[in-house]
């Protein structure tokens, strides 16, 4: 039956003055359970990020080697360039809508992704989505650091002749030079992360535009060298597809775009919580997603298209493109730029998420910084360079974990918008009292757990079985949509049949009412 509205578990009190508080720290109220609370997980004292800060976040997320290769690969699917652009626009608009949806509950309450999940999964059950997202981020943290290390390798090989000999010695599958580059970047990222969210914000504010400057310069150089008349934006080979045959390919391209952003989109609340208003977050998403992504994609295809007349072959990897130019200044600037770009996406997508996620599991023992360092150390132990190029290894590790992102997203959206009607009792997310509104059944909401089990199993099957068996191979492109849709519908149905989430009153002063007029 519906949980009764309980007496608030903690009375409000005046926050610590900002001048004496650590930047980014939250307000820990009397009555908050220490097993659920630390300053990193508590509701924020101040929310100061502007639209530009959110815009810069998405720039860091888009401007990477992976983003470059993904955008370029879509133009080689065999469909016309205008169809690729349509797919890019539709895909990124879907991402924008979903990012706005997941942003609101965290921006309104000032809490990160794992904490807002307590309202849906229960104060203990929320550890399940936190651990899943944290493990995915930890694995990709290692991969992105490895990719950035490859960019740094080209700088060493160009300017330190003796470094070539280091390629002949390897340990655990990685060359000595690779270990040196990996270690340099690992330490640099850890140092930046340890400086806190304000330092990270300043870094991404600078990194995104800096990458654009170099990308524009690279595009101008390649186009000038190739001659504008020698550039074709059609990167695919073979006969063009008929319009009817191109529709499924366009749909797959749209799904690829959404899937590429599914990880940071799920835990976008870790960043939107810092937004000064939901309106500012939405404005930042507009500039950072459709506008930024489309411009970056056009730059990408210009660079890739120009490599055909300039180098005699299509090159979709920016690192390889920079190496092919073979000019010392270009190698130095390009190598360091793509290092910066990859570090940017690694920090925002794969460091901050597990920091909050792992801290949520044991707040008294694991701070935000400690959670991030757990992910950093774990990323090395996974030796990502050994399985990154192995399709089967990725399919049965990240393929399975990644397939759970869709159901987690669907459950959160259904819980906040359809069931809770955008009403959250913030203080109860930090209480283990049996009378607390998110205690459910010993801290677990069985409706959320059963939805994750069922929708997750279907989503994993749709992601793993088609490529493994060769049956309906295109189906795996839609695993996120399958999991998200099923998670949303099933959770809503279970809550309708056997309600667990509390029916909160909009007039309750202890409840944040995100749907109230004038709150955006």
TrEMBL record:
Region (Disordered): 1-24
Bilayer topology: Multi-pass membrane protein
Ranges annotated as spanning the membrane: 54-76, 82-103, 115-143, 171-191, 203-223, 243-263, 284-307, 327-349, 370-388, 394-419, 447-465, 477-494
Subcellular location: Membrane
Biased composition (Low complexity): 1-23
Keyword Transmembrane helix: yes
Keywords linked to the UniProt accession: Membrane, Transmembrane, Transmembrane helix
Family: Belongs to the purine-cytosine permease (2.A.39) family.
Protein name: NCS1 family nucleobase:cation symporter-1
Organism name: Curtobacterium citreum
């Amino acid at each position: 039956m519906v949980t009764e509205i309980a007496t608030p578990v903690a009375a409000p009190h005046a926050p610590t003055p900002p001048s004496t508080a650590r930047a980014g720290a939250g307000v820990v109220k009397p009555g908050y359970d220490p097993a659920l609370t630390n300053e990193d997980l508590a509701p924020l004292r101040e929310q100061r990020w502007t639209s530009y800060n959110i815009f810069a976040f998405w720039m860091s997320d888009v401007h990477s080697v992976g983003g470059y290769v993904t955008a370029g690969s879509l133009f080689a699917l065999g469909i016309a360039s205008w169809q690729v652009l349509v797919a890019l626009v539709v895909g990124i608009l879907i991402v924008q809508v979903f990012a706005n949806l997941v942003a609101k509950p965290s921006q309104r309450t000032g809490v990160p992704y794992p904490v807002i999940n307590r309202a849906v999964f229960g104060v203990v059950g929320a550890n399940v989505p936190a651990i899943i997202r944290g493990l995915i981020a930890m694995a990709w943290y290692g991969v992105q650091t490895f990719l950035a290390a490859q960019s740094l390798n080209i700088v060493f090989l160009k300017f330190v002749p003796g470094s070539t000999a280091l390629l002949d010695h390897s340990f655990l599958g990685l060359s000595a030079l690779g270990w040196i580059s990996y270690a340099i970047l690992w330490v640099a990222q850890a140092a930046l992360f340890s400086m806190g969210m304000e330092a990270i914000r300043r870094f991404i504010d600078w990194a995104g535009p800096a990458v654009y400057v170099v990308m524009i310069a690279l595009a101008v150089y390649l186009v000038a060298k190739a001659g504008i008349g020698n550039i074709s934006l059609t990167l695919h080979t073979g006969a063009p597809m008929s319009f009817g045959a191109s529709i499924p390919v366009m749909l797959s391209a749209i799904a690829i775009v959404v899937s590429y952003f599914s990880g940071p989109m799920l835990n976008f609340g870790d960043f939107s919580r810092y937004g000064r208003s939901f309106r500012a977050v939405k404005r930042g998403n507009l500039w950072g997603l459709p506008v930024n992504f489309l411009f970056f994609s056009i730059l990408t295809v210009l660079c890739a298209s120009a490599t055909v007349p300039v180098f005699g072959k299509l090159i979709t990897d920016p690192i390889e493109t920079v190496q092919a130019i073979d000019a010392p200044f270009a190698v130095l600037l390009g190598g360091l730029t793509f290092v910066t770009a990859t570090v940017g996406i690694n920090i925002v997508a794969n460091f901050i998420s597990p920091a909050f996620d792992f801290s949520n599991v044991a707040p008294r023992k694991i701070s935000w910084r400690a959670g991030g360092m757990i992910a950093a150390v774990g990323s090395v132990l996974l030796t990502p360079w050994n399985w990154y190029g192995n399709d089967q290894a990725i399919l049965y590790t990240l393929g399975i974990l990644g397939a759970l992102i869709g159901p987690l997203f669907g459950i959160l959206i259904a819980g906040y918008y359809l069931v809770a009607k955008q009403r959250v009792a913030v203080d109860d997310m930090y209480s283990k009292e049996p009378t607390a509104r998110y205690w459910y059944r010993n801290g677990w909401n069985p409706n959320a757990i059963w939805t994750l089990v069922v929708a997750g199993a279907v989503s994993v099957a749709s992601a793993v079985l088609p490529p493994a068996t060769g049956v309906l191979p295109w189906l795996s492109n839609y695993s996120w949509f399958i999991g998200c849709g099923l998670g949303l519908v099933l959770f809503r149905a279970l809550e309708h049949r056997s309600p667990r989430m509390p029916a909160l009153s909009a007039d309750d002063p202890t409840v944040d009412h995100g749907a109230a007029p004038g709150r955006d």
